[in-house]
Amino acid sequence: MELRHLRYFRVVAQTLNFTRAAEQLHLAQPPLSRQIQQLEEELGVALLERSRPLRLTDAGRFFYEQTEQLLEQLARVCDDTKRIDAGQRRWLGIGFAPSTLYGALPELIRRLRSDGGVELGLSEMVTLQQVEALKSGRIDIGFGRIHVDDKAVIQKIIRLDPLVAVLPAGHPLLGAAVSLEQLAQEAFVLYPGNVRPSYADHVIELFARNNLKISVAQMTNELQTAIGLVAAGIGITLVPASVQRLHRDDIGYAPLLDPAATSPIVVSYRAGDESALLCQCLDWITQLNPNQ
User: Fold this and answer.
1) Widest CA span in the chain
2) Which of 98, 146, 219, 276 could covalently link to 193 via disulfide, CB atoms 3.0 to 4.6 Å apart?
3) CA 86 to CA 7: how far, in whole Å?
4) Over the stretch 50-60, which tens digit does the pLDDT of each residue have?
5) Based on the number of CB atoms within 10 Å of its own CB, is 246 exposed (0-12), middle (13-18) or buried (19 or more)?
6) Is there a single domain that holds both residue 94 and residue 108?
7) From its phi and psi, is residue 260 left (phi > 0), alpha (psi between -120 and 50) or beta?
């Protein structure tokens, strides 16, 4: 399937007349009919009822609505690409670990969006993925939770978040600060599980530094999933304190007694990148985290 198939089908669907569609597309009618037939053969469905007048099938109506959105989005992408190339707009790719959305990152995004000349690309990814995306040029700045030793990328800790325990509602440890020793007696739900090292390893190392070993009942890839599994009684988990902004009736949060139980927010960017937009971002980050 090629882009021209979608464009040809859109005009046919709008006109419901092969002759008028061919005129608009500056094509002869037989080649246009063959292109639509090829599209139907590739999809394995009939998009048109070839009656008089021509009609869209149910599948055709659905395909038209979806392709119309895709083509409109593609047109916007092409226009913005031209504006960026002409210097009329700037593009900034941001990679972020989900838990960083509970800190200063939303305010940074709001500031960037308020500048009508900036186009943002937001990608959810863990720190290791951010490093590779930075090196390949797919993003320009990343917000994660772990340090990665790579000379091509500069990393700075912009804040240390205290960790808190997430416990199911009614758990006996709720209502007071808890120790790592107490938590080590519980089963754990850790995240993310598919890219290592990660925040999960940070939690394991925290207990290992205190000569404690935890039992992992479940690994998952998403923060929200981990919290949902805690609510279901599968285990407990540790999250940055900023995540407490997420309120649920089926869980509770307990602060930790150990002051060293923290998780950093790490900003990452390419070594040697001195672009004005990146420098502006770093200045704003400093303003949003004045005590770090």
Assistant:
1) 80
2) 219
3) 27
4) 888 888 888 88
5) middle
6) yes
7) alpha
